[in-house]
Write a structure and sequence with these properties.
heterodimer, A: 272 residues, mainly alpha, three-stranded mixed beta sheet, 42% helix, B: 207 residues, 1% strand
Chain lengths: 272, 207
């Protein structure tokens, strides 16, 4: 995009360029327009609509057994939603697995509501014009941890194993472009085009990044979860498709969540 | 687990936990990582599961951690092997800078969401400043503005640029820059066009 087109894009569509700017950068008219656009966005976060819908779905009697998710144990006891996001992923004795929020919701939909695993995992991410329960549930549950610090346990051996596995996956370079997570997220002050990149190996950056997911993505008009974020990163890394709630996705979330230890949850945030 | 049970029987539960933690803390083996990845990804579009298979460069570069460089012997081995594998075209190395600019702008190619019948882009602006008329450039790599004007439009420099785009690991092991020629991301003609973007005196990059 040339400068003139850049201004038009930022004003008219305001999507591709609505990204972070390096602090030391001289501000061209195009960049000033982008900043105005971002400020306008910050005034209202449509993610609240997903939170409300998610709360309704959490309490709604659904599935073959016609029961709600209100007895679901997200890690702090059955039915406790407040603060649950700050301790996930974690080990659950009933499944003998480390689960993140999304995989735990799948577990509860199957065990409590009687859905099949295939039904519970179907359509995890919304397509344009199609609302799905998972995005809304994630938005609601994450919002119930706003203002609370991340505190993920590595006390159980399987939690430690997931963390170590996630770290290896973070540094795993492959596919046609030799990209790994670390390619874009291993150094500070970097950006792709105008998009700031968090350095996820730096605790301050890792906290800022992790605590703002799930997020309402303006460019997509949807709330997107951490599972979606990881899925779309691997697409751009030229990897095959990361499967929803797969072991690698949970391990990587564990590494990122622990890297964000102490970060105060502020999700769903608003992102380009 | 058997060790853990033995330790618990022989001594105390605390001993068991300590052993289990040490085992986990050592981290998974490369085989365990590969098995988890293979169970977690599915082929989609042009991105098949063989994309998870690493060559020696990828395998060694995955061991690098922030603040630590690859051991010099390993780095030299990568650079020598990648340099030896570079294939130069017959004749001129400098193509059409206008085509090179399009390649530098295009970010698609090789993703499972991309049409494999279309040529891939180089996405140079994602990481580099080139033509200063483009304000949306990244800073993962150095600015390349006035690349040829500064360094001279020599045959040696043309050859260097061709080789660097073809395989950046031949010069700097574990570079973040894709190996555009070696991995078949860009064609020979496309690389020549990118060389022109940097090395043609008429290219906007050199104004």
């Amino acid at each position: 995009m040339k400068a003139v087109h850049g201004i038009a894009a930022a004003v008219a569509a305001g999507i591709a360029l609505a990204a972070g700017l390096a602090p030391a950068e001289e501000k061209s008219p195009a960049l000033q327009e982008i900043e105005k656009y971002r400020a306008a966005l910050a005034e209202g976060n449509p993610g609240e609509l997903w939170e409300a819908r998610g709360e309704a779905i959490w309490k709604e009697k659904r599935g073959p057994r016609n029961v709600s998710l209100e007895a679901c144990d997200l890690g702090l006891g059955p039915g406790v939603v407040k603060g649950a996001y700050t301790v996930l992923p974690r080990y659950f004795a009933d499944t003998d697995k480390v689960e993140d929020l999304e995989s735990r919701l799948v577990t509860c939909m199957v065990a409590l509501q009687g859905f099949t695993p295939e039904q519970a995992k179907k359509d995890p991410f919304a397509n344009p014009g199609q609302k799905v329960p998972m995005d809304a549930l994630v938005a609601y549950i994450a919002s119930e941890s706003q203002g609370m610090p991340m505190h993920v346990s590595l006390a159980h051996p399987k939690e430690r194993q997931a963390y170590e596995m996630g770290k290896e996956i973070f540094f795993y370079r492959g596919a046609s472009h030799d990209f790994g997570c670390v390619t874009c997220h291993g150094a500070s002050g970097k950006r792709i085009r105008l998009q700031d990149l968090p350095n996820l190996t730096d605790p301050a950056d890792a906290r800022r990044a992790y605590t703002t997911w799930p997020a309402y993505r303006v460019s997509q008009g949807e709330v997107r979860s951490m599972q979606w974020r990881l899925n779309d990163c691997f697409r751009q890394q030229r990897f095959p498709e990361l499967e929803f709630v797969s072991p690698a996705s949970i391990a990587l979330s564990m590494y990122l969540a622990k890297s964000a230890e102490g970060g105060v949850m502020n999700a769903p945030a608003l992102k380009r | 687990m058997r060790l853990c049970v033995a330790a618990a029987l022989a001594a105390a539960v605390a001993g068991c936990a300590a052993i289990a933690t040490q085992d986990a803390a050592r981290g998974p083996s490369p085989e365990e990582v590969k098995a988890v990845l293979q169970s977690s990804f599915q082929a989609k579009g042009q991105a098949k599961l063989d994309r998870l298979d690493q060559d020696e460069v990828q395998r060694l570069c995955s061991t690098v951690r922030p603040g630590h460089a690859l051991a010099p012997e390993a780095a030299h081995r990568i650079e020598a092997a990648q340099m030896a594998a570079i294939r130069y075209p017959q004749g001129s190395l400098v193509g059409d800078w206008k085509s090179g600019e399009k390649i530098a702008q295009q970010g698609t190619g090789k993703q499972y969401s991309d049409n494999p019948a279309q040529p891939s882009g180089g996405n140079c602006y994602a990481c580099h400043q080139l033509d200063t008329a483009e304000v949306a450039y990244g800073n993962m790599g150095p600015s390349l503005h006035r690349f040829g004007a500064t360094r001279g439009y020599t045959a040696e420099m043309q050859k260097y640029v061709y080789a660097k785009v073809y395989d950046s690991d031949a010069f700097s092991a574990c570079s973040n820059m894709p190996r555009f020629g070696h991995m078949g991301i860009l064609t020979e003609q496309q690389i020549k066009d990118v060389v022109a973007l940097l090395m043609d005196p008429k290219s906007p990059v050199n104004q």
